[in-house]
Amino acid sequence: MGPLSLRVADGECVSVMGASGAGKSVLLRMMADLDPHAGEMRLDGVAAAAMPAPDWRAQVTYVAADAGWWAPRVAEHFAPGADPARLPELGIAAEAFEWTVERLSTGERQRLALLRAIRERTRVLLLDEPSSGLDPENVERVERLLRGLLERGLAIVLVTHDRAQARRLASAHWRLADGRLARDDE
Question: What is each CA distance from 81 to 9, 17, 112, 176, 178, in whole angstroms?
């Protein structure tokens, strides 16, 4: 991947689109400082390299298209004191907090992974296809949650294949192809 430059302001959502295999997920993982990279990322002028990786990742949070689950119960994947009352806003029963992960549908796992990424210190969400495979009602719920986060000042980098979703959420659009990131004002 060639040198890339992307700025995202507080409260702004930018979309990144491109063909499957173009490197969109790798780009998000580099921004989260999860994959090796030669570049520099900054948050409020502070380089990622200038802070411990857990501090960077607490503020710049990556939500994979197929998020990992490492413990048997849903609640074990959330920070202590997490409020299960937020689950219904994403169409999930509050009691799901006490369910086993294996009981969840793929869509429930996807929405719960998004919800667990939203913590007090989160400043930037790096979202990899956050609503792929969801029915229209749940896509609307996810987008409503994301718009609320933008209004609170969170920045979002949205990787999606859904051009209509990109237009609904993002104010700037980028295309990744041949290792290059270019504006996509189409």
Answer: 29, 36, 16, 39, 44
Chain segment 124-173, per-residue pLDDT in tens: 999 999 998 899 999 999 999 999 999 999 999 999 999 999 999 999 99
Cα(99)–Cα(3) distance, integer angstroms: 44
Q: Which domains does the chain have, with CATH numbers?
A: 13-68+121-183 (3.40.50.300)
What residues pair up with 60 in beta bridges, in sequence order? 124
Q: How many CB atoms lie within 10 A of CB 28?
A: 24
Q: Which amino acid is at 74?
A: V
pTM: 0.92
Structure tokens at 112: 């719960």
